[in-house]
Amino acid sequence: MSRPSALAAIAALLPGLIALVPARAAVPVPPPPPPPLNAHSYILVDVNTGKVLAAKNPDDKMPMASLTKLMTVYIVFSALKSGQLSLNTPVLISTAAWRTGGSRMFVNPGTRVPVLDLLKGVVVDSGNDATVALAQKIGGTRAGFVSLMNDYARRLGLHSTHYADVDGLPVPDHYTTARDLATLSMDLIRDFPQYRFIFKIKKFTWDHITQRNRVSLLWTDPYVKGMKTGYTDAAGYCMIVYADRNGMRLVSVVLNTPSWDARVNDSQALITYGYNFFENDRVAAARETVAKPRVYDSAAGYAPVGPERAVELTVLRGHNTLHTHIEWKHWPLVAPLAAGAAVGTLVVTDGAGRPVASTSLVTLAPAPEGGLLTRLSDDMHLWFSH
């Protein structure tokens, strides 16, 4: 029986009491330290829970090279979601976009290229020309789009990031941190699931030129779903990797490694470390019935209650010592109760009894008042029980 089912069974029998329910109780042990890496700065985060599993200098401000393009992609995805653009919207390629240096998709000036193909050019080819074309389409000018990038950075809570260009070519006052890049990457994954397929594309052909995705782990690790690489002399070799193994989703960010191989090896080591030593515990799904307490003066007598949002935690693999209990907002519960009424809190504690998570519990169905006899009987019961 799952933890929520056990809670429901106990609550139905003893409406005033919710027992602590252990989950695979074991003696907790600390995780081993993360492997030694080449990166000056790195971070590994569980996307589902936001828990940082490993980090080194995650708040150091660093040049970001082509990792800059993830913000470009986020803004384009936002425009797609709002209906400002569609994947088939043609984008005129300007001479300025065509002349942009560095890595390129090799679009031609004066042609019109669909948004989807330009996105592939940005993600797979790291094309600066495709990036500038999209920036001009949405922002009017590169400067206008840079202003928009900084607006989005503030909205997303990227407090240590500042953009000065759209493509990541070296310019002053253009920096970020591993933590901010992880936040942006997780927002891309969570906010736009319909467009995640673009990051998984291994190679892309445009105008008879085929380029391979620079996230080489797409070929060697079946759990890697892509993301983005970057390189300049100032930034070093950088890589962001998104991986999903049976629903446990990880993002790793490595910044300023000394070589292509080093960024690949560091990224693989972080992802392997995360999956080897951690796992997710879904304590309860959003609006899942975790208890069915007595509701006095109600025709039904009981009402299902569940968490307003899902409760999921990252725990050390094989050493899960989480417990749950319910703290009622008011007891006893008395009808009428509308669906969605806040009636308590589901509290999760670790093996030492320390709270590690909580969420509001709401009624999942209305509990209207019963008839006169029901109300009289329940009121008498309440009177004598006090």
Question: Could you list some keywords that capture this structure?
Answer:
386 residues; five-stranded antiparallel beta sheet; alpha+beta; single chain; four-stranded antiparallel beta sheet
Describe the structure.
With 386 residues, the chain is an alpha+beta fold. 30% of the residues lie in helices and 25% in strands. The strands form 6 sheets. It has a 5-stranded antiparallel beta sheet with strand order 2-1-9-8-7, with helices on both faces. Strand 16 and strand 17 (355-363) form a beta hairpin.
Secondary structure elements and their pairing?
Layout: H1 3-13, E1 41-46, E2 52-56, H2 69-82, E3 90-92, H3 95-99, E4 112-114, H4 115-123, H5 128-139, H6 142-155, H7 178-191, E5 203-206, E6 209-212, H8 217-220, E7 224-232, E8 236-245, E9 248-257, H9 260-277, E10 278-284, E11 295-296, E12 305-307, E13 311-316, E14 323-328, E15 333-334, E16 342-349, E17 355-363, H10 372-385
Parallel strand pairs: 11-15
Antiparallel strand pairs: 1-2, 1-9, 3-4, 5-6, 7-8, 8-9, 10-13, 12-17, 14-16, 16-17
Helix pairs in contact: 2-5, 2-7, 4-5, 5-6
